[in-house]
C-alpha cells in the first residue's frame, strides 16, 4: 500500500507523510477509527485531504528516478 499510494504512517507521532507520485484518489481508509480521504492531482499535488482530528498530514516531494 505504501509503495502504491505514497502513504507513510507514523502512528506514534500521529502523522501521515504523503509522497504522491501522480493522479490518485484514496478514500474510505480508516485511521484511528475515523475515515481518511485523499485526492492527488495528476502532477502529484495534493488536492484535498479529509483526515481524523489530531492526525497531521504532511506532504513530501516524491523521489524521481
What does this protein structure show overall?
With 65 residues, this protein is mostly beta strands. Helix content is 6%, strand content 49%. The chain has 1 helix and 6 strands; from the N terminus they run H-E-E-E-E-E-E. The chain has a 3-stranded mixed β-sheet. A 3-stranded antiparallel β-sheet has the order 3-4-5, with no helix packed on it. The model has no long low-confidence stretch (mean pLDDT 77).
> Cα distance, first to last residue?
19 Å
Strand content: over 45%
Mean pLDDT level: 77
C-alpha geometry: globular
Order of helix and strand elements from N to C terminus: HEEEEEE
Largest sheet: 3 strands, mixed
Instruction: Determine Rg (CA atoms, Å).
Output: 11 Å
Query: Biggest sheet, strands in spatial order?
Result: 1-2-6
Low-confidence runs: none
Approximately how much helix is present in the residues? under 10%
Q: How many extended strands? A: 6
Number of helices: 1
Please state the structural category: mainly beta
Write the SSE topology.
Blueprint: H1 2-5, E1 7-10, E2 15-18, E3 24-31, E4 34-40, E5 46-50, E6 56-59
Parallel strand pairs: 2-6
Antiparallel strand pairs: 1-2, 3-4, 4-5
Task: Write a concise synopsis of the structure shown.
The chain is mainly β and 65 residues long. 6% of the residues lie in helices and 49% in strands.
Amino acid at each position: 500500500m505504501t509503495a502504491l499510494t505514497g502513504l507513510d504512517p507514523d502512528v506514534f507521532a500521529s502523522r501521515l507523510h504523503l509522497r504522491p507520485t501522480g493522479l490518485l484518489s484514496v478514500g474510505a481508509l480508516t485511521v484511528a477509527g475515523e475515515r481518511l480521504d485523499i485526492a492527488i492531482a495528476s502532477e502529484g499535488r495534493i488536492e484535498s485531504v479529509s483526515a481524523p482530528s489530531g492526525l497531521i498530514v504532511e506532504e513530501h516531494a516524491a523521489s524521481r528516478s
